[in-house]
Amino acid sequence: MKRTSFNDGWEFRPKGDQFTELTGRSTPYRPVSVPHDAMLTEQRSASGDGAGAYFPGGVYEYRKVFHVPAEDEGQRIFVEFEGVHRDAMVYVNGAYVTQRPYGYAQFRADVGPFLRRGADNEIRVEARTHQDSRWYTGAGLYRDTWLLTGGPVRVAPEGVRVTTVEADRDRAVVEVTVEVESDEHALRTLELTVDLKDPDGRVVATRTTPVTVDPGRKAPVRQRFYLQNPALWGPDRPALYSATVTLDDDRGERDIELDPERATERDTERDTERVTFGIRTLSLDPERGLRINGMPVKLRGACVHHDNGPLGAATYARAEERRVELLKAAGFNAIRMSHHPMSSAMLRACDRHGVLVVDETFDMWTSGKSAFDYSLYFAEWWERDVEAMVAKDYNHPSVILYSIGNEIPETGSPAGAVWGRRLAGKIRSLDPTRYVTNGINSALAVMADLAALREQVNEQPQGEGGINSFMADPAAGMEALATSDLVTRKTAESFALLDVAGMNYAEARYDLDRKLFPDRIILGTESFPTRIDRIWNLVRVHGHVIGDFTWTGWDYLGEVGIGRPQYRTEGGAGGEFVAPYPHLTADCGDIDITGHRRPASYYREIVYGLRTTPYVAVRRPEHHGKTPAATSWAWSDTVASWTWPGHENAPTTVEVYGVGDEAELLVNGRSCGTRPLESFRTEFDVRYEKGALTAVTYTGGVETGRHTLHTAHAPVHLRAEADRSAVAATGGDLAYVTLSLTDADGTLHPAADRPIRLDVTGNGVVAGFAGAHPATEERFDADEHTTYEGRALAVLRPTGPGEIHLTASAGDCAPVMVRITVTA
C-alpha cells in the first residue's frame, strides 16, 4: 500500500466537557506537530505521582481535517498509528472506528467505510492516561502517524517478510514471503516481482511470478533466493539489503499489448512495498553462548525507557538515532527497551548502527503494578499486542530476543507459568527465528511466599550473604533471596519455557545454575550499575551467560530519584526510593537526559575492556566526610571537574578508574602518592587547589595512560555547538545544539550555572530545551532554561527548507549564534 506521512495538520486540546460546551464555553484546539507529547503541556505539582515525574494525568483530543479525492472510490484507506498513549479511541466524521488500550502497540484504523469521497473529512483521536505505569509515559499521538492507501488487490500492510534460511561467507538462502490480499468479488491473477539490492544499491536478484487471489481472501507468496558472497549483518558491520516488491495487474498489460493507443496509465494497477533487512544467523548453546554468524557475542546491554528527555515521549526519528549513536559510542552493543515494544524509528537506527535489541512486550500480565495499568486489559488484548510487536520487528536484523515480560509477579506460580507458555508459544508461532526471554525478578516471583521464607531465616547462617541481609541491605537481600531454594523451585517452570533465562538482579545464580541447570542459558536482563565489575567478570568467564543489561543506560523521566546521591542523616535515614517534588528524573544512568556521559559511563567502558585511558572524577567537596546512603542504582556523587570555587584547601575525594596495577594522582605536578587499582578503581583524599589534577596508571611500573582535569578561570564564555550543520525538513529530523559555559580556553565551568535564553528564527522552532538537573521546576517547552554543571541542550525542529537561526544569551556572557541549513 502507498504510505504517506500523516503527521501534519493536527490540532490538539485537553478533552472538553460536552455539557459545558453546550453553554458556549469550550476549550479551543491549537495546532500541533506530530509526534506530540500532550503530557508536557501540563503543570507538574507536588500533588502528582513521583512515578510519573509529578505530571498529572489527563484526557486529550486530537483532530485533523483531510480531503479524500472522488477518484479514490474503491480504494482501501487506513490510518496507522505507531503509538498512542493510551486507551486510544478513533472516530471519523463522528463515527467510532476502533480503539487500542495499549499505549505502545502499533495499530491501524480502517477509516475507508466512514469517509466522504470528494470532500473533507475529520478524524478525531482521544487518549487518556492516569496512574497506568511506573515511569513517565507521555500522552497522546507521541509516535508517527501514516495514511495507507491501496487498491482492491494489494500487498497487505506489513505483508513482506524476509527470512535468512541459512548463510555463511560464501552463500545465503533468503526467503521472501509476501501476503497479497483481495477485496474483489472475482478471482484475480496478478504479477508479483521481487528485487533484492545489496548494501551498495546493486540489484543482486530479481524474480517475477504470477499470483492468483481468491475473492475476499489472502494469498501468501513465497520465493527463495540464493545469493553468492553475501554481506552479512553483524554488530561490527551492519550490512543492510533491501527488497522491493511490486504487484502489477497483468490485465492492464494485456490491454496495452492489444491496443496501445487506447491504453492509459490507469490500465495497470501497481502496488509497491520496500523493506530493508539483514542477512545473519543466530545460534545459542550453554557452552558457546550466543553467536551471530558463527562468532561469539557478549551483550553489553543498556536498559532504556522510551522518553527522549526534553522532548518528553515524542518519538522523532533523529532523537532515537542520536540515542543509539551515543549509547554505542559509550560502549554498549545492545539495548533492551524497557518495558514495552520499541519504536520503529529506534529499530531502524539499531539496524543501521549494528546495535542488538531485546524487544519487550509488557510490564505486567494479570497482576497490576499501578492503579489503572494494562493488567485491566491484558487477558483480552495480549495476543493482538504480541502480534503487533512481532509484525513490526520481523524484518529488523537488530532484534535477536523477544522478552515476554518484566518482573511479572505471576512467574513464581503455576498459573504464571501457564501464561508464560502462552506468550512464548504465540511468539514462536509468529517468528521462530528469534529467541524468547523474560526478565524475572526473584523477589517479586516469590512475593506471596515471603512469609514462609521469613520462617526459614532463623535456620539460615548469620554470616555474610545470609537471608537476614535482606532486611539490612535490599541489594544484598535480593542476592541472597535469588539463590534460595524457594526461588529455585518456584521459578523453575517459568525459566524452563524460555530459550534464555532472563534474570533481574540475580547474578548470584549464574554459577549456581551452571550446576543445577546445566542446559540453562542466562541473560542478565537488569542489574545494578554499581556492580558492573563483578557482573562483567561473571559474564566473561561463563559461556552460559550471554550478557548483562544495566539499569540504566540513559537517564529518564519519572521513577524520580532512584539513583540520586543520598547521605546518612542523624536519624539514620537514607536509601529512600522515590524523591520528593520537584525531582524530575530517575537520576540514574550512564548518560543523562541531554546525552552527556557521566563518570559511571567511563568506568563501565574500562570494565568492558574498551578503554585503556584512565578517567578521573571528583566527589563534591561539600559532602566530604558524609556517609553515603543511596540505593544500589546510584553511582558515587562525582563530577569530572577540578573547578570548585569556595572550596579552596577543602578536603575532597578523587576517584580514578583505569586498567593496570596502580594509579598515581598529581596536583599541579606534585605527586599525592600511588594506590593499587582494585576492580578497576581507586581513590585519593586530597585538598582542592586550583590548577591541574592528573591521574596516571601503571602496569609493571610502566605508564599506560593519563587523564587531566583543569580548573576553569573567569571570565565565563557561552559556547554553542550544533551536532550537524544541515538537517532535513522531513522525516523526523532534528538539530541538537549543546550550550556550554567555559573559560577562554574552552574548559567547562560547572560551577557557573546560569539561565540561558533562546531566540530562534527562520525555518525552525524549539522542540525542547533542558539542562540535566534531576530536580527542577523549569519546563522543557520554555525559551529559558538554567544550565546544569555548565551545560544545556536545545533541540530544534525544522519547519521547512531554508535556514534556522538560533541566538543564545546568558547574563554577562556575549551572545552566540548558530546557523543550520534545512534541506528539502
Automatic annotation (TrEMBL):
Give residue ranges for domain DUF4982.
651-704
Which InterPro entries does the entry link to? Beta-gal/glucu_dom_sf, Beta-mannosidase-like_N2, DUF4982, Galactose-bd-like_sf, GH, GH2_Domain-Containing, Glyco_hydro2_dom5, Glyco_hydro_2
- SUPFAM superfamilies xrefs: (Trans)glycosidases (SSF51445), beta-Galactosidase/glucuronidase domain (SSF49303), Galactose-binding domain-like (SSF49785)
Write the record's keywords in alphabetical order, separated by commas.
Glycosidase, Hydrolase
Residues covered by the Glycoside hydrolase family 2 immunoglobulin-like beta-sandwich domain: 159-252
Per UniProt, residues of the Glycoside hydrolase family 2 catalytic domain are 290-441
Ranges where the Glycoside hydrolase family domain occurs:
718-818
Region listing for Disordered, in residue ranges: 251-272
One Pfam match, given by its short name, reads: Glyco_hydro2_C5
Q: Which GO terms describe its molecular function?
A: hydrolase activity
The Beta-mannosidase-like galactose-binding domain extends over: 60-129
Statement: the UniProt record of this protein carries the keyword NAD: no
Per the similarity annotation, which family is this? Belongs to the glycosyl hydrolase 2 family.
The protein's name is: Glycoside hydrolase family 2 TIM barrel-domain containing protein
- Its source organism is Streptomyces longisporoflavus
